[in-house]
Amino acid sequence: MTGGRLIVLEGMDGSGKSSQAAVLADWLEGRGLRVVRCHDPGATPLGDAVRDILLHRRDLQLASEAEMLLYMAARAQLVRDVIEPALAEQAWVVSDRFLMSNIVYQGHAGGIDPEQIREVGQVATGGREPDLTLVLQIDLATGARRLDRPLDKLEQRGDAYRQRLCDGYQMESARTGAVVIDATADQQTVTSAVIAAVEAAFPDLSAGPVDG
After folding, report:
1. Domains of the chain, CATH where assigned
2. How far apart are the first and last CA of the chain?
3. How far is C-alpha 114 from the chain's CA centre?
4. Integer Cα distance of 154 and 95 in angstroms
5. What is the pLDDT of residues 106-124, one digit of tens each?
6. Sign of CA dihedral 51, 151, 168, 110
7. CA angle, 124 as apex, 119 and 128 as ends, to 5°?
8. pLDDT tens digits for 144-187?
9. How many CB atoms lie within 10 A of CB 24?
10. Which residues contact 23 (CB under 8 A, 6 or more apart)?
11. Cβ distance 205 to 159 under 8 Å?
12. What distances in angstroms separate CA 199 from CA 5, 57, 133, 194, one per listed residue?
């Protein structure tokens, strides 16, 4: 198999997507591929600074539009500095979140027209779209139980907000053809479903180690 691929894991906080992204990256490396791991926002100096503002600066009250544009700025840098160079070198990229998060969080849950966010997203990403998006779906109660750490600013917005996130992910998954994975099961069962979805999307991977 030649050429790089961009695989994105999406989902609400508590769905386990960060852990599954790490396991998936390890699995891909075990297939002989060079893998670049990243999270959105983050993975660049600008992205890390924006991440701190968005999630931890409680002295800053951001309008939904400002919040959305900060995510876009971080994503633009991520695409230019990390994702595109990696794909150009035929590496595979596993990203913890991408544009769908913006559309769900600031769009469906935050009140901005999702179509407007998609338009801005085309500029920020330069038109780069994932080759595969996996949405880890989880109910509110299970997600809340799994968040065994101090909540960030977004996580503190309450159950009504989180229900809008859940609904938004369902709508965006249907719209984009993303693969929805039941994340309420134990970690190994979810991992098996993630790997199966990746193998179905890229059949050459199931044949054994490949040249990436």
Report:
1. 6-207 (3.40.50.300)
2. 6
3. 17
4. 20
5. 999 999 999 999 999 999 9
6. negative
7. 90
8. 777 665 555 666 677 888 899 999 999 999 999 999 999 999 99
9. 23
10. 191, 194
11. no
12. 13, 40, 13, 9
